[in-house]
Amino acid sequence: TSPDFPPFEYIDNKGNIVGIDIDMMKILSNKIGCDMEIVSIDFNGLIPALINNQIDVIASGMTITEERAKVVAFTKPYWSADQAIIIRKDANINPQSLNDLVNLRVGVQSGTTAEQMISEFVNSTGKNINMVSYQSYVLAIQDLLAGRLDAVVVDSPVANMFVKQYNVKISNIITTNESYGLAVRKDNTELLNKLNKALDELLNSDEWQQILRKYLG
Ligand code: ARG
Q1: Tens-digit pLDDT profile for residues 132-158
Q2: Ligand 1 centre from 141 Cα, in Å?
Q3: Which residues sit with their C-beta closer than 6 Å to ligand 1?
Q4: Which regions of the chain are under pLDDT 50?
Q5: What is the rounded end-to-end Cα distance, in angstroms, of the chain?
Q6: Which of 30, 73, 91, 98 could bridge to 121 as Cys pair (CB 3.0-4.6 Å)?
């Protein structure tokens, strides 16, 4: 996991990696009778790490995309998200769309769907957005607060958390209809099937509601 993405995975004030994905993986691994260890890897290194056998599952708020599904196998979806534009609370801009981000400095995390969406916009329109790709979303937010960025584009559920934690606000949501899934190696059908079954049970349980209450209030 890439622990810079609250409430799904982040580092708490004791230095532990916590979040919805982490609690979810604890329960799923229990259900399927496996030990679990959390490994922290930058988001753009997760798929390579999975393919190279350094990890067995990606649990990182990862959007199920056609492109990724060519190289990894996704479980059924467990969450949905859109993309939010975040600005400083005191900003004198109010970007509503990608077009409103033209010529602004915009932070994203490297390897994410936000990065891909902005690149595609720039390539298809020939317009300029000064996009900066960070290893971690937390670093992007810090640069936004420091005035080195005008905006950050990040998944909407995470944007809602950043708004609670930092002096930032959401200027608009871009509807992208993303769904998160866990990813395993393509040839690991056994694990995929077990995860899907355990996920089905979990998503319909009180335990899941408790996790959501714990992290979302
Ligand atoms: N949902 C987006 C994607 O799949 C962003 C995920 C970033 N996750 C993280 N743990 N930093 O590209």
Answers
A1: 999 999 999 999 999 999 999 999 999
A2: 15
A3: 2, 4-5, 9, 43, 60-63, 109, 112-113, 137, 155, 178
A4: none
A5: 23
A6: 98
